[in-house]
Amino acid sequence: MVAGLRARWFQRRAREQCRSVPDKCRVYVIGDIHGCAELLSRILNFITADLKDRPIEEPWVVLLGDYVDRGLGSRVVLDILTTAPLPARCIPLRGNHEQMLLDFLVEPHRGIDWIRNGGLETLHSYGIDVRPLHSWGGYAEIAAALRARLPPLHLGFLERTMPRCEIGDYFFCHAGVRPGVPLKEQSDVDLLWIRDPFLSAKCDFGKMIVHGHTPVDQPSVLHNRINIDTGAYISGKLTCLILEDSRTTFVSTNSSRRDAWP
After folding, report:
1. For the chain, is the Cβ count within 10 Å smaller at the N or the C terminus?
2. d(Cα 37, Cα 77) in Å, to the nearest integer?
3. 93: which DSSP letter?
4. How far apart are CA 57 and CA 39, in angstroms?
5. Where are the beta strands (DSSP E) in 112-229?
6. pLDDT value, residue 254
7. Closest by Cα among 261, 178, 167, 171 to 225
8. What is the pLDDT of residues 170-204, one digit of tens each?
9. CATH class entry, domain 23-245
10. Verdict on whether the full-model pTM lies above 0.85
11. Where is the Serine/threonine specific protein phosphatases domain (predicted)?
């Protein structure tokens, strides 16, 4: 185990439906990063070491979105994801915060919602002077500055993010799905933004939904969904879910809080 990380193994109850990924496949799923570059580096280092210790034919890294905002290192996070060698083939999903940033570049007048939800920290990470912002404007000027400062690699990465992916019996998205709607018909808006009625749903969605978006103290495992957003920018805990065969493992960066793991 890499220093600074803790692991927990989840044992499925016999009455629960067994979910699995394909043979010779291992999936590392990383929760909401929110500008926590150092925590991301620790998780990626763990994955690199784990693959060296336990090689497998088909390793994947699935990122659940929200790479930017709230934390102070959004630019560094995107540098890591676009220029550093990653330990396995990566599937970057889109979070609502990436969507807000992209919307701001196209329609600056919508920027107030993004700025109030962590966009200010992202602007600071790109060295943008935010003094032109005020209650009645300044968004067009700031959007132009961000377009000028945003490296093409970063913008390309953000634009290529996807709303969903499926591997084996698992369906991955940022926020969740709308109950009663087939997975193939889910809207991008719900996949990026939904909370209830998804969080309170008791139904089987056809596949196990793996998501973030709604912070929890520790990974939440229910019969129909797994939430791995452990509020990294507040808690210091960035969580990685490891799926192999029908086994489920959680690895988390350590937290100074006493309730990091029971």
Report:
1. C
2. 5
3. B
4. 27
5. 164-167, 170-173, 208-211, 220-221, 225-227
6. 81
7. 171
8. 999 999 999 999 999 999 999 999 999 999 999 99
9. alpha beta
10. yes
11. 93-98
